Every structure is written in C-alpha cells, then in structure tokens.
Amino acid sequence: MTSIVIKVAERIYAFVALNVLWCFFVLLGLGVFGFMPATVALFRMMREWNSGKKDLPLMKSFLTFYKEAFIRANLYGAMFFGVFYIIYVNYQFVSYFYEASIHFFLYVVIFSITAVAVMTFVNLFSVMAHFDHRLFHYLKLAFGMVFAHPFKSFLQLFWLIAYALVAMFYPKAFLLIGVSVFAYVIMSINFTTFNQYKKNTPVP
C-alpha cells in the first residue's frame, strides 16, 4: 500500500514539475517563440512515458527536446497563426458582406473548418513528438488523422472542451497540472495509432 502511495505521489510531482517547466520555457522564449517548442517538448515527454521510459531526468530531457523542436515548431506556429487569423477575419465578415438568410450556413462552414484546423493543430504536437519526418510531412499526418480516426478525433475534441471548461472554472487546478495532464491524455489517445502507423509506413 505504501509503495502505491509513493508511486502516485511521484507521478503527481512529475506532472506538476512538467507543468512548471512548460511555463518556464514558454517565458524563456518570450511567450510568442516559446509556446510551440515548449509544448512539443512536453508532448515528447509524454511520448516517452507512454513508451515505458518513466524515469527520464525531467529538466535535462525537456531542455533537449525544446532545443530540437525550436525552429520547426515555431515555423508551424507562424503558419497556424495565419490560418486562425484568416478564419477569424472570415467569421467577422459574414455579417457585413452576406445576406442574413445564409448566415447560418456560413457559420456552420466556418465552425467546421475551425474544428478541423484546431484538431490538426492539437494532433501536430503529438505527431512531432513521436516521429522524425520532413517538415511538412508532420502537417500531412496531423491533418489526415482527423479524418482517418474520427472516433479518436471526437475523444480529443471532447477532452479539449472539458479541459477548457476546467481551466475556466477551476483556474488554480489548471495552473498546477493543467497543461501536462492535457498533453498526457492527448498523447495516450494517439499512441497506439502512431505505433501502428510506424510499423506499416516507411519513414520518408
């Protein structure tokens, strides 16, 4: 019983420590340039945990993964910033440039595109954490997963919404372990799929 309590306490500590590291490295990159590589590094840690490597040195491993992902993660960050900005602009323009009779249809289209873009963005972190591919192959795989595995995409979307609600109504819990727990759940959902893909697909 004591050993179980110790293991649970160690795991909670690891989640909290990773959340602190994520916050630190986001700030280290001045926020804008730190968010993407810090999040990829966090997902990489969760990938290692799912692989059974639960005793990695947290600080050293996180720093290594952060530096490895810094450039390509920020390239994707800039690209998705552009995508979400275009979606936002189109959303704002609906009421100004189109008749009220088609507003509902246009909002449904924009919402659908937004959902696909968000899920592709979320998948991108776990894809970059698990594979070593050419730059744009990550995007192709992250986008394809949204449609190839609709049930898992639904689970991720449900978890994303639940996570957002927790962050909204329980901000203290979110600040403590929120980001690391979020990454662990998303990575766990995708891990089996990634292993199957890696066995059946040659690395480009």
From TrEMBL:
Q: Which UniProt keywords apply?
A: Membrane, Transmembrane, Transmembrane helix
**What taxonomic ancestry is recorded?**
Bacteria, Bacillati, Bacillota, Bacilli, Bacillales
Q: Which residues cross the membrane?
A: 12-43, 75-98, 104-129, 141-167, 173-191
Q: Which InterPro entries match?
A: DUF624 (IPR006938)
Q: Does the keyword Signal apply?
A: no
Pfam families, per database record: DUF624
Name under which the protein is recorded: DUF624 domain-containing protein
* Coiled-coil intervals: none
What species is given as this protein's source? Answer: Shouchella lehensis
